[in-house]
Predict the structure of DUF4244 domain-containing protein.
Amino acid sequence: MLALPARSPHPPALPAAPSLKTETEPLRSRLERRMCLLDSQIRMFMEHPEEGAATAEYAVVLIAATGFAALLVAILKSDAVKTLLLNIVKKALNVG
């Protein structure tokens, strides 16, 4: 029978992520790097300033349409409108 190597109870350590702040990197270089990142974020935002606006507009239209439909249902269920529509249909059928 083959013997398997013993497993460690701890997961293997991940390598450390490179840090922007090191003792050897001068302050000017760190500032330039940060300014470059900030510039790229601003440019990306300026290219797509209305991303997600269409979804919000659809939501507002959907809510408005639902409210309008509820209003129409309430109006059409009233006795006055039922009588009016019934008289229009009777008058149209009695032509001739």
